[in-house]
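User: I'm putting together a small comparison set for a docking exercise, and I want a reference complex before I start. The sequence is below, and the ligand is zinc ion. Could you produce the 3D structure with the ligand included, as structure tokens?
Assistant: Of course. I'll restate your input first, then give the structure tokens for the complex.
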Amino acid sequence: MMQGAVTVLGIETSCDETAAAVVRLENGRAEVLSEQVASQTEEHALYGGVVPEIAARAHVERLDSLVKLAMRDSGLGWGDLSGVAATAGPGLIGGVMAGLATAKAIALARGLPLVAVNHLEGHALSPRLGEEVQFPYLLLLVSGGHCQFVQVDGVGRYRRLGSTIDDAAGEAFDKTAKLLGLSGQGGPAVEREALKGDAKAVELPRPLLDRPGLDMSFSGLKTAVRRAAEEMPLTVQRRADICAAFQAAVGDVLAVKSGRAMALVAETTEKRTFVVAGGVAANKALRARLEAEARHHGFQFAAPPLRWCTDNGAMIALAGAERLRLGLVDGLDTPARARWPLDEASASMTPVYGGGKKGAKA
Ligand code: KG4
Ligand code: ZN
């Protein structure tokens, strides 16, 4: 256990964002001293999805300067750091290797401890970057590669309660955007269009809502979106209506399942906090919907500020600092992992497979 302040450089390279940040953790409070994010949206735009080889190369090209900038902005020297952390998985393996190798090199050269962070743990702890969210809490982790309910009891103590059985919600946003010919990042593009549409104009399914439990499914929704897009001429208004209907359907699924998850948690504990994190949590309509659901169930609601919903270095630095504080360090031989469930026990009992463009989903 480390006493006093813990200051960590965090590196994130699991998908199409190269990111580095310096975070100081003191008395349970996190302070982001600096952060840098370089997105690769343009590099992949031509291909309609993230191309792993292009991503890995772009990470390698940017990492050194990004880390230097993060260190410069923090006003600290290498000697002021307590350790260096990097995402070690799950994600696109080439990118993860690039970030992890950089962290290992820094650790070796500067004599600093290395912390290999599970990307999902980064998302899981990310709400604590902005405010003091106390453990335990119920987490809905909803991103481009993942969609799951997790009971978070503390650092390193996670229990998966349910998850998507096919696509992640963010992936469904991305595919919907692509199908409708929207440019830019999928989620924000659909959110923008949805503002101009009428959700009631298009009928879409709410997969798995008729079944008990907390598992979710989004691939049928994507197929229904394709049908709706092909059924009649895709006018500007029709496109907006489909986006609005799609977002409403995702909102219904997430809200109803979240309600069930809260009811389940409320049976066993007085601690009632519901947290939403991951890229899709940046969606204002969905956030509002989930906040209302939390209020309805008597739960406190927390979600990170938008910049810490999508992939970033600060959440990796924070997870690294929290682990380091507990004495959890990793050897320089720690491997990069394409698959790495947050809750290994549940994952091995009820494996959820699927190789989305952002790597394994479980
Ligand atoms: O957390 P993240 O950056 O990467 C993963 O770990 O997957 O999440 C990215 C995902 C993408 O699928 C993106 O379309 C989605 O989050 N996303 C959104 C919004 N902003 C990002 N989805 C819906 N509405 C948004 N505003
Ligand atoms: Zn992520």
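Residues 137-302 form a domain with the Nucleotidyltransferase; domain 5 fold (CATH 3.30.420.40). The pocket of KG4 (ligand 1) is lined by residues 15, 143-145, 170-171, 173-174, 185-188, 191, 278-280, 282-283, 310-311, 358 (CB under 6 Å).
User: Thanks, that's exactly what I needed.
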